[in-house]
Amino acid sequence: MTFTDFAFDDQLLDGLNSMGFKTPTPIQTQAIPIVQSAHDLIACAQTGTGKTASYLLPVMDGICRLEKRPPISALILAPTRELALQIDQQVEGLAYFTGITSIAIYGGGNGIDYEQQRRSLREGVDIVIATPGRLIAHLNSGGVLLDQLKYLVLDEADRMLDMGFQEDLLRIVGKLPKVRQTLMFSATMPAKIRKFAEKLLNNPQHVNIATSKPAEGIKQEAYRTFDEQKNKLLLSLLKEGDYNSIIIFASTKEKVKHLSTDLRKLGLKVKAFHSDLKQEERQEILLNFKNKKVSVLIGTDVLSRGIDVDGIDLVVNFDVPGDPEDYIHRIGRTARAETTGTAITLVNNKDFRKFKAIEEFMGRVVDIIPLPEFLGEGPSNPLASTNKNGNNRRKKKPFRKNGQRKHFSKKKPDAVG
DNA sequence: AAAAAAG
């Protein structure tokens, strides 16, 4: 199968060829005909599967074929600014010969950005790619020409609901024409998403190519460590290994900030990436990472989904993500497009059960690598320890009189908020 | 549990 089988507009095909697209991916093969047949669509698919082109191509083809183009033909909603920007860049590449116009609408920029966005939304632009918050701000100021829109796409719908965008999304959809084509993409399909889809979609067709299994090309490893050992272990992993491009994930912004200063003190050239940075800084860092001017990025989960950077050969989970889905997304930053990569997770005692849950979710175990000798003993495996009866059941909670609670851990003040 | 997104 080739892209010519879809009978796309010639100019769109030119753009496709110039971007080096050859063979459609499974999601594209399945989704494109559905969109072309004017049905609504729910697709369960992760990034890296060719998901973005699977809706951009038929939507852009549809726009090329409109007898009269409305001021705004398509609205694409995405959870993060980086994803919105990335989609917009893909539109620009594909649209090169078509005359289709687009703009990414998101917050965090300067007043000039806001004015440009406002003008486009009031004067018309074929495709709008937006994060919900900023689009709402524009809708509140009025004059946004969405009343003749043909296509609505919700990308990473599960992530948008997780981020509390449900009400914003419903408000946005309330401003759109009832007759339109709606396409929803989500990495997971919990009941919450299904219910949400029922509100927005009309008799949708389903496509499912999602999997709880990470790509074959990812070598997964884990180390059991105490927190005090993590920095030194990380340093040795980075120094011993022959890696060109590395992402290190940590679960909070504070951890990301601390870790990047720590690693810098240890002599590594690293950049931190999180939402406390100015949007221009975020973009510059990501650009330099893509250019390979920056080789080590330390980031929060804002980087875990949707970011498509070629050539990342190592992902380190400095701690274990709480949600197995996030683990899959994080390690999926490496081994993209048929390449290989390594994913290493540092597991302390507190995270051990979360890590077991991830293994269960994937249906496979991850090799535990012994700590390098210079680090001394790591923690022993709490689930493998045997009690005096010789079985490996975990110890029962000690009986307590009067049901009192015993405080095992005090919350650190900086761990709050 | 925290992240992100509107200032």
Automatic annotation (TrEMBL):
Please list the coiled coil stretches: none
**Organism from which the protein derives:** Albibacterium profundi
UniProt lists the family membership as follows: Belongs to the DEAD box helicase family.
Question: Has UniProt tagged this entry with the keyword Nucleotide-binding?
Answer: yes
Q: Locate the Helicase ATP-binding domain: which residues?
A: 32-207
Protein's UniProt name: DEAD/DEAH box helicase
Which residue intervals define the domain Helicase C-terminal in the entry? 229-377
Q: Which CDD domains match?
A: DEADc, SF2_C_DEAD
Q: Which SMART domains match?
A: DEXDc, HELICc
Compositional bias annotation for Basic residues: 391-410
One Pfam entry for this protein is DEAD
Enzyme kind, highest EC tier:
hydrolase
Record motif Q motif, residues: 1-29
Q: Which UniProt keywords apply?
A: ATP-binding, Helicase, Hydrolase, Nucleotide-binding
**Which EC numbers does the record give?**
3.6.4.-
Per its UniProt record, what InterPro entries does this chain match?
DEAD/DEAH_box_helicase_dom, DEAD/DEAH_RhlB, DEAD_box_RNA_helicase, Helicase_ATP-bd, Helicase_C-like, P-loop_NTPase, RNA-helicase_DEAD-box_CS, RNA_helicase_DEAD_Q_motif
Q: Which GO terms describe its molecular function?
A: helicase activity; hydrolase activity
What are the start and end residues of every segment in region (Disordered)?
378-417
Q: Which domain of life is it from?
A: Bacteria
Q: Which residues form the DEAD-box RNA helicase Q domain?
A: 1-29
